[in-house]
Amino acid sequence: MFGPISIAPSILSADFLNLEDDIHLVEEAGAGWIHVDVMDGHFVPNLTIGVPHVAALKKICKVPLDVHLMIDNPEVQVPWYIDAGADLITVHIETLKDPAATLKLIRDAGRLCGISLNPPTPVEAIKDVIGLVDLVLVMSVNPGFGGQSFIPESTDKIAKIVEYANEAGVSPLIEVDGGIDTEKAHLVASLGADVLVAGSSIYKAQDPSEALRAIRAAAMSAQA
Ligand code: DX5
Ligand code: ZN
Q1: How far is it, in rounded angstroms, from Cα 161 to Cα 166?
Q2: Is the pTM of this model over 0.85?
Q3: Does residue 177 have an active-site annotation?
């Protein structure tokens, strides 16, 4: 909260046939994380990539892998993503039977753990676990697809998460995912977001490196 801003490009919008180049491109432009969207076709309608891809990405990524699990029953697969080398594993509160146990599993393996919540899920749902996480990922679109528009009500959630964290005496990173462009980057950073996921606004831009730098500059200017 109000520390340096990190940009986490989502490779969902990258060119899968040139993924290594597309990753090095954003790393050289200053990406703080590489955001990997894992979707199972159940929790979300879309199906993307999984454990073997994360293991392969780990071999070539120079910055930490931010693995966003949009899957049912994540407690079964979390150990697989730990073995694959995920540096940060974020699970959805909507999918967890025993949130504290799953988060502990991640932390005990020496990885960062994150909790996420969908747009319709009230912030109160994560109140009890806010002291157990390294990061809270606010979904600012309904998960499943890149290229959607930022849901304006997401800003109230960020403010509420900051409030809950302060009350609990903790300071998890706040990550915002979905519909982030320069304007939204400035907005959410001004509310206390630390990590900004951006897929289409980086990879669909004519110059992805320049787009990343512009997003980071817009976010940083909110903190000046
Ligand atoms: C959506 C994913 C996002 C997505 C963001 O379910 O979690 O990470 O790739 O894409 P943009 O930045 O295009 O909204
Ligand atoms: Zn994501």
Answers
A1: 8
A2: yes
A3: yes
